[in-house]
Automatic annotation (TrEMBL):
It comes from Spongiibacter pelagi. Signal peptide: none annotated. Keywords: Aminopeptidase, Hydrolase, Metal-binding, Metalloprotease, Protease, Zinc. Pfam families: Peptidase_M18. Its cofactor is Zn(2+). This is M18 family aminopeptidase.
Length: 431
């Protein structure tokens, strides 16, 4: 491994800062772009001609998906690409286009549930608001910018148990009626548009004529933290899957510049990946084809390439161990998890699993396996989507996690840095 590899403590502190800086996919991509640019990566525009000499580059789409890559010294068709994939989105509450609800003297904002969120944990949390706003400036030009309230401006209050005596036995959540977010006790002139304009003003955007559209979501204002008696755990929102985005980013930044390497972080995985910037869209294939240059070079390069899809895995919960197959219960802080499913909900096969195990062995890192119970449905990742779209040999792995899709998730403080070491070795072609 290189001499520049981060220590576990340094890595975890940088991870916590990354999580706090990335309340939405837009902010995640902005933060990744900043770090790539500072490391010397050149930003490309999809609409421009590319002249790709050996070097380091990145390109974004929709401000919410990113592909970063290194062009190595040898022809790519002779070596193929080493690729890592993750996703930038997480389940959340997204603000509706016309969200204002004024009732009993309160202003609430109506929301849609994005992805398969655990809804009960969203109650009684201090919520910030962040995302992208499109507006017309005072010169009549269309503009867009990212906003972040930077403070808690909303809450979804629970109904007191005195008014719902069965709450601890069976409280269901109706997303339409139970989840509108309480914002204010406004005067008659206050509105959602006024709120957005105020947030824009606070961030120095003063030339706003009309707010035309937005993609905003609420997020937990409690910051990422190391917790546990000996700081064994990382607690944060959006560990699924910003954890993998950060691990892949740091591994790529450390990588050998002479090797052909790729990191792709797609939006919209939590809702099926079917978008122009999702894994079912053409973004990754388009970038790879432009790097390869010719159809023959593309085909030859793909046949020599390997993909690791990194997305969190279900750690075995001590209170609910019966939800796991007894032989496949990953433990936090015991290493990355190879995810297997015979129905191809994960893309791992014996070749890709063996290579990963060998890499972990050489680096002295432990590895675990996850298979869903045979009587339960299995989730999926961008792994099978990417494998089937471009024909690349793929492995699905992840860091074991508790409370996946909750507003606050939990992972082991050793596992992220362990996977960082392994993916660094993958990019450096140690196996």
């Amino acid at each position: 491994m290189t001499q520049t590899q981060l220590s576990r403590d340094t890595f975890n502190q940088q991870l916590l800062a990354f999580l706090d800086a990335s309340p939405t996919p837009f902010h995640c991509v902005a933060e990744m772009s900043r770090q790539l640019f500072e490391a010397g990566f050149v930003r490309l525009q999809e609409s421009a001609e590319w002249d790709l000499a050996p070097g380091s580059y990145f390109v974004t789409r929709n401000d919410s998906s990113i592909v970063a890559f290194r062009v190595g010294n040898a022809p790519v068709e002779e070596s193929g690409w080493r690729m890592v994939g993750a996703h930038t989105d997480s389940p959340c509450l997204k603000v509706k286009p016309n969200p204002e609800i004024k009732k009993q003297g309160y202003l609430q904002l109506g929301v849609e549930v994005y992805g398969g969120a655990l809804l009960n944990p969203w109650f009684d949390r201090d919520l910030g608001l962040a995302g992208r706003v499109n507006y017309r400036d005072q010169k009549g030009q269309l503009q867009s910018t990212l906003i972040d309230s930077g403070r808690a401006i909303g809450v979804v209050p629970s109904l007191a148990i005195h008014l719902d005596r069965e709450a601890n036995n069976s409280r269901s959540v109706n997303p339409q009626t139970d989840l509108p977010v309480l914002i204010s006790q406004p005067n008659d002139d206050f509105s959602f548009v006024a709120l957005v304009k105020q947030l824009l003003l606070e961030q120095g955007v003063t030339e706003v004529s009309d707010v035309l559209a937005h993609e905003l979501c609420f997020y937990d204002r409690q910051g990422a933290a190391l917790i546990g008696w000996e700081n064994e755990f990382i607690a944060s929102a959006r560990l699924d899957n910003l954890l993998s985005c950060f691990i892949g980013l740091k591994a790529l930044l450390e990588g050998d510049a002479s090797q052909h390497s790729v990191l792709v972080c797609n939006d919209h995985e939590e809702v099926g990946s079917m978008s122009s910037s999702g894994a079912q869209g053409p973004m990754l294939e388009s970038v790879l084809r432009r790097i390869a240059g010719t159809e023959t070079a593309w085909q030859r390069a793909i046949s020599r390439s390997n993909m690791i899809s990194a997305d969190n895995a279900h750690g075995i919960h001590p209170n609910f161990s019966d939800k796991h197959d007894a032989n496949h219960g990953p433990l936090l802080n015991k290493g990355a998890v190879i995810k297997v499913n015979v129905n191809q909900r994960y893309a791992s096969n014996s070749d890709t699993m063996a290579s990963f195990r060998e890499l972990c062995s050489r680096l002295g890192e432990t590895v675990q396996s996850f298979v869903v119970r045979s009587d339960m449905a299995c989730g999926s990742t961008i792994g099978p989507i990417t494998a089937s779209a471009i024909g690349v040999a793929t492995l699905d792995i992840g860091v074991p996690t508790f409370a996946m899709h909750s507003i606050r998730e939990l992972a082991g403080s050793k596992d992220a840095s362990s996977l960082y070491r392994v993916l660094s070795g993958f990019y450096q072609r140690l196996v």
